[in-house]
Amino acid sequence: MFRIRDSSITKKLAWMNMMVSGGALLLACAAFVAYNMVTFRQTLVRDLSTQAQIVGANSVSALLFNDPKSAENTLAALKAGPNIESAWIYSPDRRPFAAYGRDRRGQALSTLPAIPPGRTEAYWFKDNHLILVRSIMVEGKPTGFVYIVSDLQEMYDRLKRYAGIVAMVLATSLIAALLISSKSRRSIAQPIENLAEIARIVSTEKQYSIRAAKTGNQDELAVLIDAFNEMLAQIQQRDAALQKTHEQLNLALKSAGVGTWSWDMAKNSVAWDEFAAPLYGLEQGALPDEYAGSLNLVHPEDRERLDQAVADSVEKGVPYDTEFRVVWPDGSTHVLGTRGNVYRDEPGKAVQMAGVVWDMTKRKRAEEEHEQLASIVESSDDAIISKTLEGNVASWNGGARRIYGYSAEEMVGKPISILAPPDRADEGEKILERIKKGETVDRSETRRLRKDGAIIDVSLTVSPIRDANGRITCASEVGRDVTDRKRAEDELRKLNEELDERVRQHYPHPREHARDGSTRGRLAEPGARGPPRTEPASDRAGLAGRSSRHRSPEGMQVSRDRLESGAVAVRRVRPWLDETGIHQLALQRCKVLPPA
């Protein structure tokens, strides 16, 4: 299949000239023909309307005296018009009155088309015919109608003549454009073809000494030829040195501070630079000078993989970019990265491989530490959140998801104020103001709003995070759910109040007990030192007897089961209460009460 874009420049120029000139001429002719056809149609309508008006005027008397024969004679005059096929005169009640038809092919309409209000005639084009209806007016009133059907053969004949003329003009213009293009080949296409041939010879035969012939013109093409010849001269001077060192130079620039290596496959010799030996933990000159020896420097578990990477690069052209471990003479393991290129001869056979090697041990360790830290943060039961100084969440761990009910996808990028209850809406802004000043908010107890609408008690520690320059860039927030602890504290306070009330019932006169030195009923206070004082078994028995006399009939006694359940609750929440010491007080008070 012929494709213009793959053809020569000569053919492209010829096609371009022919298409431009032919297209412009075709558009002009099309516009001319279209305009002529529109005006000719209007002329047909005017001529047919005039004939209908004449027929109507000559048929008035026939309509008034009901003389169809006279009306037909009037219509017979239309045979002078070669395009009129049929015509009718209708009475005022829209019934056929007289008819005319060439070869009698016309048939009267049972329903005469209506004429738009305010007009005396109507026309339309249908099935290659022009149809016109005109009212016969007498003193401003319609006394009948004229219906005429005309073919459009004259218009089609004219259109055919125009098409023939356009085709002749278009063919003439295309031939002229082709002749002009062939004349311009010597000054435009021929120099470009010569330049393309020179470029082909240079690229295939590597003959950089050849030059393109200059033209006598001083146009853009002459500038292109001069530039091409200058480029060939520069390539000829620099090709020998540039071809050998170009790739190594780029690698050296990109990998400053690393070692380089080169493997001559024909001689099976490996050359190293002065920076490569320390990467393997060896002295200068201690590196092996052959491929098998250099492979022995690699960790035994990585040798096969590294050797396969080299083979894939040489045989399949896969980019050589990998990492491997080496064991230094002191027994330490280091991770090295390497990247290289394969150089081939003209037939495509690999002859040399060169590249760079660098130590990436610190980076690998940092990645492992980062992954370990990220795992610790993610698995922590505490909510560990980082947020910007504007209060938007930057990171969200699994503990935050469990405590607040929101996933990381729901919260990252959202304001942390979502977690603030309505009565603490401005608390987050105050904390951020302190963070911006470099302060740390340590173990601040507050309340937060979960996703399910529940209010929980949390203990927050918010710290500023600084960049390498010491600037505060964001904040870290560690939150712990202390709702159970707060609830346990409230329960213990209520229990202590009941215990105090119960003790007062057993000891209505505490001063007397204090004077006689009795220790019965003495409870350890939160700040007291030493073990709590408890009563002997005999005293507890007496106390139990006395307590029965002080019990109210409404069940004011604190049952032994409730006291034991309170002690269990204290032990259950003890990890949260170690800092307050309140659980010790509660346990001591549970122990000193008499059995039920």
Defining key terms:
single chain, 596 residues, alpha+beta, Beta-Lactamase, 4 domains, five-stranded antiparallel sheet, flat, disordered C terminus
Give a summary of the structure in a few sentences:
This protein is α+β, with helices and mostly antiparallel strands and 596 residues long. It is 48% helix and 20% strand. It has helices at 9-58, 60-64, 68-76, 153-205, 220-254, 291-296, 300-316, 361-379, 398-404, 408-411, 427-436, 483-506, 510-515, 537-550, 560-572, 574-577, 582-592; strands at residues 84-90, 96-101, 121-126, 129-138, 141-151, 259-264, 269-272, 320-327, 333-344, 350-359, 383-388, 393-396, 441-449, 455-466, 472-481.
Q: In the residues, how many domains can be counted?
A: 4
Largest sheet, in brief, is: 5 strands, antiparallel
Low-confidence runs of at least 5 consecutive residues = 513-559, 576-596
CATH topology of the largest domain: Beta-Lactamase
> Can you tell me the CATH architecture of the largest domain?
2-Layer Sandwich
Q: Which CATH class of the largest domain is shown?
A: Alpha Beta
- Average pLDDT metric: 78
Q: Report the β-strand fraction as a percent range.
A: 15-25%
Name the shape in a single word: flat
- CATH superfamily heading of the largest domain: PAS domain
Structural write-up:
It is built from 17 helices and 15 strands. The protein has helices at 9-58, 60-64, 68-76, 153-205, 220-254, 291-296, 300-316, 361-379, 398-404, 408-411, 427-436, 483-506, 510-515, 537-550, 560-572, 574-577, 582-592; strands at 84-90, 96-101, 121-126, 129-138, 141-151, 259-264, 269-272, 320-327, 333-344, 350-359, 383-388, 393-396, 441-449, 455-466, 472-481. Strand 6 and strand 7 form a beta hairpin. Helix 1 (9-58) packs antiparallel against helix 4 and helix 12 runs antiparallel to helix 15 (560-572). The radius of gyration is 54 Å and the shape is flat. Mean pLDDT is 78; it is low at 513-559 and 576-596.
